[in-house]
Amino acid sequence: MATGIRPDEITAIIKEQIKSFDTKIRLTDTGTVVTVGDGIVRIHGLEKCMLGELLEFENGVRCMALNLEQDFVGAVMLGAEAEIKEGDAVKRTGSIVSVPVGKELLGRVVNSLGQPIDGKGPALTSETRPIEKEAPGIIAREKVNEPLQTGIKAIDSMIPIGRGQRELIIGDRQTGKTAIAIDTIINQKDTGVICIYVAVGQKNSTVAGVVEQLRVAGALDYTIVVAASASELAPLQYIAPYSGCAMGEYFMEQGKDVLAIYDDLSKHAVAYRALSLLLKRPPGREAFPGDVFYLHSRLLERAAKLSKENGGGSLTALPIIETQAGDISAYIPTNVISITDGQIFLETELFNSGIRPAVNPGVSVSRVGGDAQIKAMKKVSGSLKLEYSQYRELQAFSQFGSDLDKSTKKRLAKGERIVEVLKQGKSSPLSVEKQIIIIYAVINNYLVDVPTAKVNAYEADLFRWLDNHGREIISALKSEKALTEAIESQIKEALKTFTEEFKASL
Predict the structure, then answer these.
(1) Torsions phi, psi for 489 (to 5 deg)
(2) Cα 193 to Cα 315: distance, rounded to the nearest angstrom
(3) DSSP helix/strand/coil, 382
(4) What is the C-alpha to C-alpha distance for residues 96 and 13, in angstroms, rounded to an integer?
(5) What is the pLDDT of residue 241?
(6) Do the Cβ atoms of 274 and 332 come closer than 8 Å?
Protein backbone atom coordinates (compact mmCIF):
# COMPACT_ATOMS: atom_id res chain seq x y z
CA MET A 1 0.00 0.00 0.00
CA ALA A 2 1.54 3.28 -1.10
CA THR A 3 2.01 5.95 1.56
CA GLY A 4 0.63 9.41 0.82
CA ILE A 5 3.30 12.01 0.07
CA ARG A 6 2.43 15.43 1.48
CA PRO A 7 3.98 18.19 -0.67
CA ASP A 8 3.57 20.86 2.05
CA GLU A 9 5.78 18.87 4.46
CA ILE A 10 8.52 18.44 1.82
CA THR A 11 8.31 22.17 0.97
CA ALA A 12 8.65 23.11 4.69
CA ILE A 13 11.76 20.87 5.11
CA ILE A 14 13.42 22.33 1.96
CA LYS A 15 12.71 25.90 3.16
CA GLU A 16 14.27 25.09 6.59
CA GLN A 17 17.35 23.61 4.91
CA ILE A 18 17.79 26.69 2.69
CA LYS A 19 17.40 29.03 5.72
CA SER A 20 20.14 27.26 7.72
CA PHE A 21 22.46 26.78 4.74
CA ASP A 22 25.96 28.15 5.48
CA THR A 23 27.14 30.25 2.53
CA LYS A 24 30.63 30.92 3.96
CA ILE A 25 33.47 29.52 1.90
CA ARG A 26 36.10 27.72 3.95
CA LEU A 27 39.59 27.58 2.53
CA THR A 28 41.64 24.70 3.85
CA ASP A 29 45.37 24.77 3.13
CA THR A 30 46.21 21.19 2.15
CA GLY A 31 49.39 19.48 1.01
CA THR A 32 50.44 16.09 -0.28
CA VAL A 33 52.77 13.53 1.31
CA VAL A 34 55.89 13.11 -0.86
CA THR A 35 57.87 10.70 1.34
CA VAL A 36 57.30 9.09 4.73
CA GLY A 37 59.64 7.00 6.87
CA ASP A 38 61.62 6.94 10.16
CA GLY A 39 58.96 9.17 11.72
CA ILE A 40 59.62 11.97 9.19
CA VAL A 41 57.12 13.17 6.54
CA ARG A 42 57.97 15.45 3.61
CA ILE A 43 54.95 17.36 2.39
CA HIS A 44 54.51 19.36 -0.83
CA GLY A 45 52.21 22.37 -0.67
CA LEU A 46 51.18 24.05 2.63
CA GLU A 47 52.67 27.38 1.54
CA LYS A 48 51.48 29.27 4.64
CA CYS A 49 52.55 26.58 7.16
CA MET A 50 54.17 27.90 10.38
CA LEU A 51 57.11 26.45 12.31
CA GLY A 52 55.88 24.09 15.04
CA GLU A 53 52.34 23.99 13.57
CA LEU A 54 50.20 20.91 14.04
CA LEU A 55 49.23 19.19 10.76
CA GLU A 56 46.57 16.51 10.34
CA PHE A 57 46.23 13.53 7.96
CA GLU A 58 42.89 12.27 6.67
CA ASN A 59 42.89 9.40 9.21
CA GLY A 60 43.23 11.80 12.17
CA VAL A 61 46.95 11.11 12.88
CA ARG A 62 48.91 14.30 13.50
CA CYS A 63 52.41 15.56 12.84
CA MET A 64 54.37 18.73 13.68
CA ALA A 65 56.11 20.96 11.13
CA LEU A 66 59.79 21.49 11.99
CA ASN A 67 61.46 22.25 8.63
CA LEU A 68 60.13 24.94 6.28
CA GLU A 69 61.90 24.58 2.92
CA GLN A 70 61.26 26.30 -0.43
CA ASP A 71 59.02 23.58 -1.91
CA PHE A 72 58.53 21.18 0.98
CA VAL A 73 57.60 21.07 4.67
CA GLY A 74 59.51 18.57 6.85
CA ALA A 75 57.29 17.29 9.68
CA VAL A 76 57.75 14.79 12.52
CA MET A 77 55.09 12.20 13.33
CA LEU A 78 53.18 12.40 16.64
CA GLY A 79 51.42 9.09 15.98
CA ALA A 80 51.82 5.82 14.06
CA GLU A 81 53.08 6.24 10.51
CA ALA A 82 51.99 2.74 9.39
CA GLU A 83 48.83 3.94 7.61
CA ILE A 84 50.40 7.06 6.06
CA LYS A 85 51.47 6.64 2.43
CA GLU A 86 52.75 8.71 -0.47
CA GLY A 87 50.06 10.91 -2.03
CA ASP A 88 47.95 11.25 1.17
CA ALA A 89 46.44 14.68 1.83
CA VAL A 90 47.62 16.72 4.84
CA LYS A 91 45.81 19.81 6.15
CA ARG A 92 46.89 22.67 8.43
CA THR A 93 45.18 23.03 11.80
CA GLY A 94 46.31 26.61 12.45
CA SER A 95 47.45 25.74 15.99
CA ILE A 96 50.64 24.53 17.65
CA VAL A 97 50.91 21.44 19.85
CA SER A 98 48.84 21.97 23.01
CA VAL A 99 48.37 19.82 26.11
CA PRO A 100 45.54 19.62 28.66
CA VAL A 101 46.29 21.39 31.96
CA GLY A 102 44.56 21.54 35.33
CA LYS A 103 44.32 20.01 38.79
CA GLU A 104 42.58 16.97 37.27
CA LEU A 105 46.03 15.79 36.11
CA LEU A 106 47.43 15.62 39.66
CA GLY A 107 48.17 12.04 40.67
CA ARG A 108 48.14 10.89 37.03
CA VAL A 109 50.73 9.50 34.62
CA VAL A 110 50.36 11.05 31.17
CA ASN A 111 52.23 10.92 27.86
CA SER A 112 53.80 13.90 26.04
CA LEU A 113 50.41 14.91 24.62
CA GLY A 114 48.78 14.90 28.07
CA GLN A 115 46.82 11.67 27.48
CA PRO A 116 46.61 9.43 30.61
CA ILE A 117 48.55 6.16 30.32
CA ASP A 118 47.98 4.86 33.87
CA GLY A 119 44.77 2.94 33.12
CA LYS A 120 42.64 5.12 35.43
CA GLY A 121 40.42 6.49 32.69
CA PRO A 122 40.41 9.93 31.02
CA ALA A 123 41.48 13.13 32.81
CA LEU A 124 38.54 15.50 32.32
CA THR A 125 40.36 18.83 32.08
CA SER A 126 38.67 21.96 30.74
CA GLU A 127 41.76 23.88 29.58
CA THR A 128 44.62 23.33 27.15
CA ARG A 129 47.87 25.26 26.73
CA PRO A 130 50.46 25.45 23.94
CA ILE A 131 53.66 23.61 24.91
CA GLU A 132 55.88 26.48 23.72
CA LYS A 133 55.58 29.84 25.46
CA GLU A 134 57.79 32.87 25.85
CA ALA A 135 59.59 33.01 29.20
CA PRO A 136 58.56 35.78 31.66
CA GLY A 137 60.54 39.00 31.16
CA ILE A 138 62.75 40.72 33.74
CA ILE A 139 59.98 43.10 34.91
CA ALA A 140 57.58 40.21 35.55
CA ARG A 141 60.11 38.47 37.82
CA GLU A 142 61.19 38.87 41.41
CA LYS A 143 64.42 38.03 43.23
CA VAL A 144 64.69 34.37 44.28
CA ASN A 145 64.60 34.60 48.09
CA GLU A 146 62.37 31.79 49.35
CA PRO A 147 63.90 28.36 50.03
CA LEU A 148 62.68 25.17 48.39
CA GLN A 149 63.71 22.57 50.96
CA THR A 150 64.91 19.26 49.51
CA GLY A 151 65.10 17.56 52.93
CA ILE A 152 68.69 16.54 52.05
CA LYS A 153 71.24 17.92 54.54
CA ALA A 154 74.14 18.17 52.06
CA ILE A 155 72.03 20.25 49.64
CA ASP A 156 69.95 22.45 51.98
CA SER A 157 73.06 23.44 53.94
CA MET A 158 75.74 23.84 51.22
CA ILE A 159 73.95 24.18 47.86
CA PRO A 160 70.54 25.66 48.72
CA ILE A 161 67.76 25.80 46.12
CA GLY A 162 65.32 28.73 46.00
CA ARG A 163 61.80 28.84 44.59
CA GLY A 164 62.13 29.99 40.98
CA GLN A 165 65.73 28.81 40.63
CA ARG A 166 67.18 26.43 38.00
CA GLU A 167 69.58 24.01 39.68
CA LEU A 168 71.24 21.32 37.59
CA ILE A 169 71.75 17.80 38.98
CA ILE A 170 74.72 16.34 37.12
CA GLY A 171 76.74 13.13 37.38
CA ASP A 172 77.48 9.75 35.84
CA ARG A 173 74.85 7.04 35.59
CA GLN A 174 73.98 5.26 38.84
CA THR A 175 75.18 8.03 41.17
CA GLY A 176 71.78 8.86 42.70
CA LYS A 177 70.59 11.78 40.49
CA THR A 178 66.98 10.58 40.25
CA ALA A 179 67.02 9.66 43.97
CA ILE A 180 67.74 13.33 44.88
CA ALA A 181 64.91 14.49 42.60
CA ILE A 182 62.42 11.97 44.06
CA ASP A 183 63.41 12.81 47.66
CA THR A 184 62.84 16.49 46.86
CA ILE A 185 59.31 15.69 45.60
CA ILE A 186 58.59 13.61 48.73
CA ASN A 187 59.80 16.49 50.93
CA GLN A 188 57.21 18.87 49.38
CA LYS A 189 54.39 17.07 51.23
CA ASP A 190 52.19 19.57 53.12
CA THR A 191 54.10 22.56 51.68
CA GLY A 192 51.61 23.33 48.88
CA VAL A 193 54.29 22.87 46.19
CA ILE A 194 52.98 21.08 43.07
CA CYS A 195 55.50 18.75 41.40
CA ILE A 196 55.94 17.77 37.74
CA TYR A 197 58.23 14.82 37.01
CA VAL A 198 59.17 14.45 33.31
CA ALA A 199 60.81 11.15 32.35
CA VAL A 200 62.54 11.30 28.94
CA GLY A 201 63.97 8.21 27.23
CA GLN A 202 63.81 5.95 30.28
CA LYS A 203 62.65 2.34 30.49
CA ASN A 204 58.95 1.88 31.24
CA SER A 205 59.91 -0.28 34.24
CA THR A 206 62.05 2.58 35.67
CA VAL A 207 59.15 5.06 35.31
CA ALA A 208 56.77 2.54 36.93
CA GLY A 209 59.26 2.20 39.85
CA VAL A 210 59.35 5.99 40.35
CA VAL A 211 55.52 6.20 40.28
CA GLU A 212 55.27 3.41 42.87
CA GLN A 213 57.87 5.13 45.09
CA LEU A 214 55.86 8.37 44.97
CA ARG A 215 52.60 6.53 45.65
CA VAL A 216 54.00 4.72 48.71
CA ALA A 217 55.36 8.02 50.09
CA GLY A 218 51.97 9.73 49.53
CA ALA A 219 53.55 12.19 47.09
CA LEU A 220 51.58 11.20 43.98
CA ASP A 221 48.57 13.28 45.08
CA TYR A 222 50.39 16.55 44.29
CA THR A 223 52.52 15.26 41.37
CA ILE A 224 52.00 14.91 37.61
CA VAL A 225 54.25 12.34 35.90
CA VAL A 226 54.89 13.00 32.19
CA ALA A 227 56.45 9.90 30.61
CA ALA A 228 58.07 9.69 27.15
CA SER A 229 59.86 6.35 27.53
CA ALA A 230 62.66 4.96 25.36
CA SER A 231 60.11 3.01 23.29
CA GLU A 232 58.27 6.21 22.27
CA LEU A 233 58.86 8.08 19.02
CA ALA A 234 61.71 10.65 19.11
CA PRO A 235 59.28 13.60 18.51
CA LEU A 236 57.29 12.61 21.63
CA GLN A 237 60.55 12.50 23.67
CA TYR A 238 61.43 15.91 22.22
CA ILE A 239 58.17 17.63 23.27
CA ALA A 240 57.86 15.94 26.72
CA PRO A 241 59.78 18.58 28.81
CA TYR A 242 57.85 21.43 27.13
CA SER A 243 54.54 19.66 27.86
CA GLY A 244 55.52 19.22 31.54
CA CYS A 245 56.59 22.88 31.73
CA ALA A 246 53.23 24.04 30.25
CA MET A 247 51.37 21.99 32.89
CA GLY A 248 53.51 23.61 35.62
CA GLU A 249 53.04 27.15 34.27
CA TYR A 250 49.26 26.77 34.59
CA PHE A 251 49.68 26.43 38.39
CA MET A 252 52.44 29.07 38.58
CA GLU A 253 50.16 31.67 37.00
CA GLN A 254 47.56 30.91 39.67
CA GLY A 255 50.11 32.04 42.30
CA LYS A 256 51.19 28.54 43.30
CA ASP A 257 54.74 27.18 43.70
CA VAL A 258 55.74 24.45 41.25
CA LEU A 259 58.75 22.12 41.06
CA ALA A 260 59.58 20.68 37.62
CA ILE A 261 62.10 17.86 37.22
CA TYR A 262 63.42 16.99 33.74
CA ASP A 263 64.97 13.51 33.88
CA ASP A 264 67.05 13.74 31.83
CA LEU A 265 68.02 16.41 29.29
CA SER A 266 70.92 14.33 27.86
CA LYS A 267 68.40 11.89 26.38
CA HIS A 268 66.23 14.84 25.34
CA ALA A 269 69.16 16.29 23.34
CA VAL A 270 69.83 12.85 21.76
CA ALA A 271 66.15 12.60 20.66
CA TYR A 272 66.39 16.09 19.12
CA ARG A 273 69.66 15.15 17.38
CA ALA A 274 67.96 12.08 15.85
CA LEU A 275 65.11 14.28 14.55
CA SER A 276 67.47 16.91 13.17
CA LEU A 277 69.64 14.40 11.33
CA LEU A 278 66.56 12.72 9.81
CA LEU A 279 65.31 16.16 8.73
CA LYS A 280 68.73 16.60 7.03
CA ARG A 281 69.69 19.63 9.12
CA PRO A 282 73.46 20.25 9.09
CA PRO A 283 75.20 18.57 12.06
CA GLY A 284 77.61 20.48 14.29
CA ARG A 285 79.75 19.48 17.26
CA GLU A 286 79.19 15.82 18.30
CA ALA A 287 76.59 15.66 15.44
CA PHE A 288 74.19 17.88 17.43
CA PRO A 289 72.38 20.58 15.42
CA GLY A 290 73.45 24.20 15.81
CA ASP A 291 70.36 25.18 17.85
CA VAL A 292 70.81 22.55 20.59
CA PHE A 293 71.69 25.31 23.10
CA TYR A 294 68.40 27.08 22.31
CA LEU A 295 66.61 23.73 22.78
CA HIS A 296 67.37 23.79 26.52
CA SER A 297 67.62 27.54 27.15
CA ARG A 298 64.05 28.22 25.98
CA LEU A 299 62.84 25.46 28.31
CA LEU A 300 64.81 26.43 31.43
CA GLU A 301 64.28 30.19 31.05
CA ARG A 302 60.58 29.52 31.74
CA ALA A 303 61.50 28.79 35.37
CA ALA A 304 60.82 31.97 37.33
CA LYS A 305 59.74 33.59 40.57
CA LEU A 306 56.95 35.93 39.49
CA SER A 307 56.47 39.34 41.11
CA LYS A 308 53.49 40.01 43.41
CA GLU A 309 51.76 41.98 40.60
CA ASN A 310 51.92 38.84 38.43
CA GLY A 311 50.50 36.53 41.11
CA GLY A 312 53.71 35.71 43.01
CA GLY A 313 53.86 32.09 41.80
CA SER A 314 57.09 30.26 41.02
CA LEU A 315 58.40 27.46 38.81
CA THR A 316 61.61 25.83 40.04
CA ALA A 317 63.46 23.65 37.51
CA LEU A 318 65.72 20.73 38.44
CA PRO A 319 67.12 19.47 35.13
CA ILE A 320 69.21 16.29 35.22
CA ILE A 321 72.22 15.66 32.97
CA GLU A 322 74.16 12.40 32.69
CA THR A 323 77.92 12.70 32.18
CA GLN A 324 80.36 10.17 30.75
CA ALA A 325 83.22 9.33 33.15
CA GLY A 326 82.62 12.54 35.13
CA ASP A 327 83.34 14.80 32.15
CA ILE A 328 81.42 17.99 32.88
CA SER A 329 83.25 19.81 30.07
CA ALA A 330 81.41 17.85 27.34
CA TYR A 331 79.10 19.70 24.94
CA ILE A 332 75.63 19.24 26.49
CA PRO A 333 76.82 19.46 30.18
CA THR A 334 78.62 22.79 29.56
CA ASN A 335 75.59 24.14 27.68
CA VAL A 336 73.19 23.37 30.52
CA ILE A 337 75.65 24.50 33.24
CA SER A 338 75.80 27.91 31.52
CA ILE A 339 71.97 28.17 31.42
CA THR A 340 71.29 27.16 35.04
CA ASP A 341 71.87 28.99 38.37
CA GLY A 342 74.21 26.35 39.76
CA GLN A 343 74.80 22.62 39.78
CA ILE A 344 74.84 19.68 42.19
CA PHE A 345 77.67 17.44 41.02
CA LEU A 346 77.46 13.79 42.05
CA GLU A 347 80.71 11.81 41.96
CA THR A 348 81.03 8.07 41.24
CA GLU A 349 84.01 7.66 43.62
CA LEU A 350 82.08 9.16 46.54
CA PHE A 351 79.03 7.03 45.73
CA ASN A 352 81.07 3.84 45.58
CA SER A 353 82.83 4.66 48.86
CA GLY A 354 79.46 4.83 50.65
CA ILE A 355 79.13 8.64 50.85
CA ARG A 356 75.52 9.12 49.76
CA PRO A 357 74.23 11.49 48.50
CA ALA A 358 77.55 11.62 46.61
CA VAL A 359 77.69 15.43 46.41
CA ASN A 360 81.08 16.90 45.58
CA PRO A 361 81.11 20.25 47.47
CA GLY A 362 84.08 21.58 45.51
CA VAL A 363 82.43 21.49 42.07
CA SER A 364 78.82 21.98 43.26
CA VAL A 365 77.55 25.54 43.55
CA SER A 366 74.33 27.52 43.97
CA ARG A 367 74.41 30.98 42.42
CA VAL A 368 71.49 32.04 44.61
CA GLY A 369 73.32 30.89 47.76
CA GLY A 370 72.29 32.13 51.20
CA ASP A 371 69.35 34.09 49.74
CA ALA A 372 67.60 30.73 49.40
CA GLN A 373 68.14 29.76 53.07
CA ILE A 374 66.32 30.66 56.24
CA LYS A 375 68.49 32.80 58.57
CA ALA A 376 69.08 29.98 61.06
CA MET A 377 70.41 27.60 58.37
CA LYS A 378 72.52 30.35 56.83
CA LYS A 379 74.15 31.00 60.22
CA VAL A 380 74.96 27.38 61.15
CA SER A 381 76.08 26.29 57.68
CA GLY A 382 78.28 29.33 56.99
CA SER A 383 81.59 27.51 57.50
CA LEU A 384 80.35 24.00 56.63
CA LYS A 385 81.24 23.95 52.94
CA LEU A 386 84.69 25.44 53.59
CA GLU A 387 85.49 22.94 56.35
CA TYR A 388 84.24 20.03 54.22
CA SER A 389 86.35 21.12 51.21
CA GLN A 390 89.44 21.66 53.42
CA TYR A 391 88.94 18.19 54.92
CA ARG A 392 88.89 16.62 51.43
CA GLU A 393 92.17 18.36 50.55
CA LEU A 394 93.78 17.37 53.88
CA GLN A 395 92.57 13.81 53.49
CA ALA A 396 94.27 13.50 50.09
CA PHE A 397 97.45 15.03 51.55
CA SER A 398 97.44 12.88 54.72
CA GLN A 399 97.53 9.66 52.69
CA PHE A 400 101.16 10.41 51.80
CA GLY A 401 102.52 11.09 55.30
CA SER A 402 102.01 9.47 58.71
CA ASP A 403 103.47 12.32 60.83
CA LEU A 404 100.64 14.79 61.23
CA ASP A 405 100.56 17.59 63.78
CA LYS A 406 97.84 17.84 66.42
CA SER A 407 95.85 20.60 64.65
CA THR A 408 95.76 18.64 61.36
CA LYS A 409 94.56 15.51 63.16
CA LYS A 410 91.87 17.57 64.88
CA ARG A 411 90.64 19.00 61.56
CA LEU A 412 90.67 15.55 59.96
CA ALA A 413 88.62 14.14 62.86
CA LYS A 414 86.09 16.96 62.55
CA GLY A 415 85.94 16.48 58.77
CA GLU A 416 85.23 12.77 59.18
CA ARG A 417 82.29 13.59 61.44
CA ILE A 418 80.97 16.20 58.97
CA VAL A 419 81.02 13.57 56.20
CA GLU A 420 79.13 11.11 58.44
CA VAL A 421 76.52 13.72 59.41
CA LEU A 422 75.90 14.64 55.75
CA LYS A 423 75.25 11.01 54.79
CA GLN A 424 71.57 10.31 54.28
CA GLY A 425 69.54 7.31 53.15
CA LYS A 426 67.09 7.26 50.24
CA SER A 427 63.50 8.42 50.83
CA SER A 428 64.35 9.86 54.24
CA PRO A 429 64.05 13.65 53.83
CA LEU A 430 64.62 15.66 57.00
CA SER A 431 62.88 18.80 58.28
CA VAL A 432 65.04 21.93 58.12
CA GLU A 433 64.81 22.39 61.93
CA LYS A 434 66.40 18.98 62.60
CA GLN A 435 69.02 19.66 59.93
CA ILE A 436 69.98 22.91 61.69
CA ILE A 437 70.41 21.18 65.07
CA ILE A 438 72.60 18.29 63.80
CA ILE A 439 74.77 20.67 61.71
CA TYR A 440 75.11 22.99 64.72
CA ALA A 441 76.25 19.98 66.76
CA VAL A 442 78.99 18.90 64.31
CA ILE A 443 80.26 22.43 63.57
CA ASN A 444 80.48 23.30 67.29
CA ASN A 445 82.42 20.13 68.20
CA TYR A 446 79.70 18.30 70.17
CA LEU A 447 80.60 15.11 68.28
CA VAL A 448 84.35 15.36 68.86
CA ASP A 449 84.34 12.52 71.43
CA VAL A 450 81.77 10.40 69.58
CA PRO A 451 83.47 7.62 67.53
CA THR A 452 83.01 8.13 63.76
CA ALA A 453 81.25 4.76 63.46
CA LYS A 454 78.66 5.92 66.02
CA VAL A 455 77.79 9.28 64.41
CA ASN A 456 74.74 7.89 62.57
CA ALA A 457 73.46 6.29 65.79
CA TYR A 458 74.06 9.63 67.60
CA GLU A 459 71.99 11.45 64.95
CA ALA A 460 69.10 8.96 65.03
CA ASP A 461 68.99 8.99 68.85
CA LEU A 462 69.21 12.82 68.91
CA PHE A 463 66.14 13.15 66.65
CA ARG A 464 64.19 10.69 68.82
CA TRP A 465 65.28 12.61 71.93
CA LEU A 466 64.22 15.95 70.37
CA ASP A 467 60.78 14.49 69.50
CA ASN A 468 60.30 13.75 73.22
CA HIS A 469 62.22 16.52 75.01
CA GLY A 470 62.95 19.24 72.45
CA ARG A 471 59.62 20.04 70.88
CA GLU A 472 59.72 23.65 72.04
CA ILE A 473 63.13 24.16 70.31
CA ILE A 474 61.78 22.72 67.03
CA SER A 475 58.62 24.88 67.18
CA ALA A 476 60.68 28.00 68.10
CA LEU A 477 62.96 27.43 65.07
CA LYS A 478 59.92 26.82 62.86
CA SER A 479 58.25 30.10 63.86
CA GLU A 480 61.34 32.35 64.21
CA LYS A 481 63.34 30.89 61.25
CA ALA A 482 66.37 32.56 62.86
CA LEU A 483 68.95 31.51 65.45
CA THR A 484 68.19 34.01 68.21
CA GLU A 485 70.28 34.05 71.40
CA ALA A 486 67.45 32.40 73.35
CA ILE A 487 67.04 29.57 70.80
CA GLU A 488 70.81 29.07 70.53
CA SER A 489 71.17 28.73 74.30
CA GLN A 490 68.32 26.17 74.30
CA ILE A 491 70.07 24.19 71.54
CA LYS A 492 73.39 24.30 73.43
CA GLU A 493 71.71 23.07 76.61
CA ALA A 494 69.85 20.29 74.76
CA LEU A 495 72.96 19.12 72.89
CA LYS A 496 75.08 19.15 76.07
CA THR A 497 72.50 17.07 77.98
CA PHE A 498 71.93 14.60 75.14
CA THR A 499 75.64 14.18 74.25
CA GLU A 500 76.48 13.33 77.88
CA GLU A 501 73.65 10.78 77.98
CA PHE A 502 74.77 9.26 74.64
CA LYS A 503 78.46 9.01 75.67
CA ALA A 504 77.42 7.37 78.92
CA SER A 505 75.46 4.72 76.97
CA LEU A 506 78.48 3.76 74.79
Answers:
(1) -65, -35
(2) 10
(3) coil
(4) 41
(5) 98
(6) no
